[in-house]
Amino acid sequence: MKSWFIASGKDSTTLELRDIPLPEPKPGEIMARVKAAGLNRGEFIAGHGLAGGAAKAGGIEAAGEVVKLGEGVTAFKPGDRVMGRALHAYSEFAMFRIGDAMPAPARLSWEEAAGAGIAYLTAYDMLWPGGQLRAGEWLLVTGASAGVGVASVQLGKLIGARVIGTSGSAEKLKKLGALGMDLGLQNRNGGFEQAIMEATAGKGVNLVVNNVGGSVFAECIRVMAYKGRLATVGYVDGVVKAELDILALHAKRLQVFGVSNKMRSAAEFAEGVRGFMRDVLPAIAGGHLRPVIDRVFPFAELPQAKAYMESNAHVGKIILRA
């Protein structure tokens, strides 16, 4: 089968399309013919470590049609639609561990199903078990236009929170407003403190999802409410160190936590998937929430899709179509 391989070095990331033998599903795995796969920025960041060292078959989320089951898999059968976290998703066939696999709702296109995986599971991790967001609370999403940002806006509104998003683009903010975002602030590397404190009547926000990175970290701390929570999930600004106001952390009883999948165990992934299927998937299946797809590229154009992602022009997910 054809498969895109990713080699992530210290300063660059390279892609290579290879022909490799068709794999066999191991016990607890589902083999699916890939219909579409989602791009995720972390996999392409040079030196990030997700694909560090020798080149590896790339892609970590997909949607497709089940073709073969490993030993012990009973929840799916050949012909079923499946989506979620996958192994070598940028291939003609991918593997899903049973704990990562979700049934793809019939109302979703393959592209939408492929985009409903990593970004939405990550947003779920931040807003539900991590951030404990409640209806009526304030949510701030910095860099709200990328995949995780858009998912955070949508899931925040699903919970019933009041959502503030930042972006350097007025056009992107307009699109996010159509998803129900309550307040859009146009800025790229900070400068939102006054507007947020005015919007929240001086109380601040209850949960911050920081997609931007260290350049806005200090300001995020300043706009947090008493017992506020801050999730660090991205650093598109390339700034990975920032000062922490320990006095504010102490006085306001703040919580700061990181959100990454690099070190999570299979059991931890499976627990998150079960929660997502309970709390979010019914809204997707019922049409109340649809994954936002910005652009779809043919399978052969992964390099072009990567370049488009790195241009930061998108709102929502970028998809590779088989």
Tally of contiguous helical segments: 10
Poorly predicted ranges: none
For the record, the CATH architecture of the largest domain stands as: Alpha-Beta Complex
The termini sit apart by 12 Å
Element string (H = helix, E = strand): EEEEEEEEHHEHEHEHEHEHEHHEHE
Please give the largest β-sheet.
7 strands, mixed
Q: Considering DSSP H and I runs of 4 or more, what fraction of the residues is helical?
A: 25-40%
Helix/strand class: alpha/beta
Instruction: Report the top-level CATH class of the largest domain.
Output: Alpha Beta
CATH superfamily of the largest domain: Medium-chain alcohol dehydrogenases, catalytic domain
Q: What would the principal axes of the Cα set say about the shape?
A: globular
Radius of gyration: 19 Å
Overall pLDDT metric: 94
Beta-strand content bin: 25-35%
CATH topology of the largest domain: Quinone Oxidoreductase, Chain A, domain 1
The count of strands amounts to 16
The structural domain count equals: 2
Note down, in words, how this protein is organized.
This protein is α/β, with parallel strands linked by helices and 322 residues long. It has 2 domains: 2-116 and 264-321, Medium-chain alcohol dehydrogenases, catalytic domain (Quinone Oxidoreductase, Chain A, domain 1, Alpha-Beta Complex), CATH 3.90.180.10; 120-258, Alpha-Beta Complex (Quinone Oxidoreductase, Chain A, domain 1), CATH 3.90.180. The protein is 27% helix and 29% strand. The model has no long low-confidence stretch (mean pLDDT 94).
Question: How is the topology of this model organized?
Answer:
Elements: E1 2-8, E2 13-19, E3 29-38, E4 56-57, E5 61-69, E6 81-85, E7 93-97, E8 101-103, H1 110-114, H2 118-130, E9 138-142, H3 147-159, E10 162-167, H4 170-177, E11 183-186, H5 193-199, E12 205-210, H6 217-222, E13 224-232, H7 246-251, E14 255-258, H8 266-279, H9 281-285, E15 293-298, H10 302-310, E16 317-321
